[in-house]
Amino acid sequence: MAFGLGMHRDLGPNSRSMMPDFDKREYRKCWWAVLQAEAFISLEFGRPCMIRYEDYDQPPLVETDFNSYSGSADFSIQQDFCAIMSDLSEIALRIAALHSPRNMHENLPNVAADLAAVEWRLPVGHDIWSCQIRIYYSFLKLTTYRARNSPEASMICAESASTILTTLETMAARDLIRKCQLYFSTALYAAAIQFAQEVRSALQAGSKIRAVSARAQLERTLHPAQLLANYWPNAKALYKLCISLSNRCLNMIHGIAAEASSVPTNAINDLTWRDIMGGSGWPEFDVNFDAGEWMNIS
Fold this sequence. Notes:
Blueprint: H1 2-5, H2 21-45, H3 79-98, H4 108-119, H5 128-145, H6 151-173, H7 183-204, H8 208-220, H9 222-228, H10 234-253, H11 273-276, H12 291-295
Helix pairs in contact: 2-3, 3-4, 3-5, 4-5, 5-6, 5-7, 6-7, 7-8, 7-10, 8-10, 9-10
Organism: Pseudocercospora fijiensis (strain CIRAD86) (Black leaf streak disease fungus)
GO biological process, one term: DNA-templated transcription
Protein name: Xylanolytic transcriptional activator regulatory domain-containing protein
């Protein structure tokens, strides 16, 4: 619909559009809201994004885009939040392209440079807007580097996961979890997987103390996951998954699931739906169930 309405096109002074300036600003804000939703939902479900970086030329949001109809500044809008989120949404598109099977134009150095440019602008406060931006940013960094096999990538992923966890803990302490958006469950899930991977890597390297520390961080994900489950149904499965991962890591550390000196590489990744459901039993179905009778609505 946004494409059909032309929201993706630049309607600036160089265009031939006769649209009033206020409507142009509204179009631009609507476009970036659509782009943000699509980009992060794409990362949420791990599916290709319906918007490509080369499909639009709508410029980023600027301060004047938030002016009211009369032209005066509208201070009821979190302008910095919206501007930074528009940049992060665009980076999210490029990260999706970076991991696409036939990526031909995106490369890690360019994406990393854009992430670094945004980091200078990250807020340091503990309000809901600042916390949200830090989680979004850390999630994008973790998504960018988690498939890279290098010491630098491991360090960046560990730092990003810790930021996601500590920020959610701050939000929990300030009763801000209820204001979290859908994508926060995915960010916490990514952090939990990262901590579990750190446990495995530490045991493979023979460092039990590092493994214990990483497992402690994994254990801390349970509280924010449980709080998120009060507002987002998908977080209930996340909470059970965190419990399962934590128990597996504890067994690995104590040598119950495997010897610490030879931890199998699939000790964390080999999860089943029963693990995700936290060991809950499957419902018993009637073996004599008649599908035809069930479909009979006469």
